[in-house]
Amino acid sequence: MRRRIPSTTAMLCFEAAAKSEGFARAAEEMNLTQSAVSRQIQTLEAFVGQSLFIRSKQRVKLTAAGKALLAELSPLLEELELTILKTQSHDSTEGSLNIGVYPTLGSRWLMPVIMGPEAEKIRHMLNLVTYLKNSEIDPSLVDLAIAQGDDGWPGYRADRLMRETLVVAGAPEQFPEPISDPHSLLDHRILQHSTRPQSWQIWFRHQGLKLPRRIIGPMFNQFEMLIDATKIGHGIAIIPEVLIRNELRQGSLIKVHPFEARTNTAYFLLTPETKVGVARVERMRSWFLDHLRLDDGLA
Fold it and tell me: How many Cβ atoms are within 10 Å of 219's Cβ, its own excluded?
């Protein structure tokens, strides 16, 4: 079906004249004669059946209809330009990429990876797009995304990166010796992550145990805050080991109990279906899979 829209040239001439408040300046910007710009705008006015400008000798001003059209049209033209630019670079192996990731995972794990010596092979400008939960991942904003969960990611191609390991962490000053009885952990103040309320149940279940009671304790919506509160000594928390490797190595956090729960969930590298096959996305995906799988023994 043929779309009932005016020519792109007419719309661009209108926008240029509206923003500069003059046909002469619009003509310079459009690299057209002033009469050509005037004809394009007259054609647009005939198409919409409205006068878009109040004309005077020196300047032109928008009518109410012109103001309404400009407010709606400019964002559409910007979006169209962006779409064309994306299409022009579709098969290019160069260019920028938007990588989606949780804030704490991004700062503590992903950034060291993409800023490390191996990342010198990457010829892309990487922009990090963060979200707090999986439902916030926007496939129109990310070229690749890292997310934790189970198998099954509708709308994405999913590559398994690494399995998740949960540990019980605490401040070393409070726990000079690890606690051997899992149930004794519940005598201490429990800190929790608001989007991971089942962590203690999962940790107990992987030992063949049943969580004896409902966990009650302060909740945090970001792991960074949860980790800081744990380091200060406000309580103990179950935290993915990948987020606190440095703290465990340096001794600013310890495993309060030696058991590590290797869960059935994992971290996945997600490619929106609309980005599958884009050369630079595929190149970056291959680099991630080769590097991360080798790094975590997942080859």
Answer: 15
Two tokens at 39?
Answer: 């004809």
Q: Could you say which of 3.40.50.2300, 3.40.190.290, 3.40.50.2000, 3.30.590.20 is the CATH number of the domain covering 93-299?
A: 3.40.190.290
What is the distance, to the nearest Å, from the Cα of residue 216 to the centroid of all Cα atoms in its chain? 31
Which pLDDT does position 112 carry in this prediction?
A: 86
Q: How many CB atoms lie within 10 A of CB 267?
A: 22
**HSE (side-chain half, CA atoms, 13 Å) at 281:** 22
Give CATH for domain 8-88: 1.10.10.10
What's CA 292's distance to the chain center, in Å?
19
- Residue 145 CA to residue 161 CA, distance in Å, equals 11
Query: Under a CB-based contact definition with an 8 Å cutoff, are residues 146 and 283 in contact?
Result: no
Distance, in Å, from the CA atom of 137 to the CA atom of 150, rounded to the nearest integer, reads 16
Is residue 230 within 8 A of residue 169, CB to CB? The reply is yes
* Domain ranges (residues) in the chain: 8-88, 93-299
Q: How many CB atoms lie within 10 A of CB 284?
A: 23
Give the predicted TM-score (pTM) of the model.
0.66
Q: What per-residue confidence (pLDDT) applies to 116?
A: 73
Q: For the chain, how far is it from start to end, CA to CA, in angstroms? A: 51
- Cα torsion 283, 286, 290, 295 to 10°: value is 90
Q: How far apart are CA 257 and CA 234, in angstroms?
A: 17
pLDDT in tens, 186-244: 999 999 999 898 999 999 999 999 999 999 999 999 999 999 999 999 999 999 999 99
pLDDT (average), residues 9-38:
92
